[in-house]
Task: structure prediction
Amino acid sequence: MLDAAYYGRLGRLKLLVDKKSNAALLGSRKSVRKGSSAEFSDFREYMPGDDIRNIDWNAYARLDRLYIKEYMEEKESRITFFVDFSRSMEYGEKSKAELLKELTAALSYIAMMNLDHVMLVDLADPAKRHIGGGGKLGYRQLTEWLERQEAGEPAAVKKTVASLGKMQPGLSVILSDFLSEEYVEDPSAIEQLIRYLQFNKQKVVILQILAKEELNIDLSGTFFLIDSEDKDQRLRVTMESSSIRSYEEELKRFTNGLQKSAKRCGATYHLVSTADSFDRIIFQQLEDIYEF
Result:
């Protein structure tokens, strides 16, 4: 899913999480991170981006495979990705869904490199989720799950988040275009969502994904616009300067409203576009969600 050249750079990043989990999970293991702690924990397979100083060369001599020494530190963090696979995400020459999958894969890799617990949840169907294991196999299974996801029902963001019930402390990342009546008509509605997650001791990151064609209209003439979520809904529109200007003003009002709502709640918001290079999004635009 990602170019191999990215993995080494991604491996040097770490997602900012305010809270650490102390709950039992899959055996209630401690978090084991690359570092100099004196308490040895275990081995795992080498992944691109690992510090080669932690390679166990004796194990390599015996097994002809690279393994990394891990050391005990603090309890693992919990990273939950709420992902939108609704039909509206299929829009664009490079679709919003494609960028969503790339971002989720990259950020999951960063989390898994630090041995954080990762869970992916479909915003349209909370029963459709994936819990990421560690190592190369766990990451490969996660990316395969992402690749299998196809366009489906509209996202039900608040309902899906609430369906998880009480959450363990950690980081929640929501990836969506947020182009639903709930948020378009009232961008402040996102404040309820953020407050709920914060009540559940989550640090919240909102990634609004829009296509370059949505941000920069390059059309002229008369068209029928078809609702991607309801094919029976059509609107006849003449693309002229005044209508394009009106659209751009409304879109700016909408995105600014989401950003202001997130800021009021102390959450992180980023508008990411399919027009931008993936390198720029990951290493520049989102730099405030990492610690170095």
In short: Residues 270 and 285 are 8 Å apart (CA to CA). The longest strand covers residues 67-75.
